[in-house]
Amino acid sequence: MFKKILLASTAFGALASTAFAADLPSRRAPVPYVAVPVFTWTGFYVGVNAGYGFNDSGRITTTGNQAVTLANSNANIRVNNVNLDRDGFTGGGQIGYNYQFGAIVLGVEADAQYTDFRRTGSFTGSPNAAGLLATSTFRTSTDYIGTVRGRLGYAFDRLMVYGTGGFAYGEVFNSANFFQPQAGGGTALLGFTGSRSRMETGYTAGAGVEYALPTNFSLFNSSAVTLKAEALYYDLGRSTFVANGVIPATAGTSYTVRADNSGVLARVGLNFKFGTF
Question: What would the DSSP string read from start to end of 56-108?
Answer without folding.
Answer: EE-EEEEEESSHHHHHHHHTTSS--EEE---EEEEEEEEEEEEEEETTEEEEE
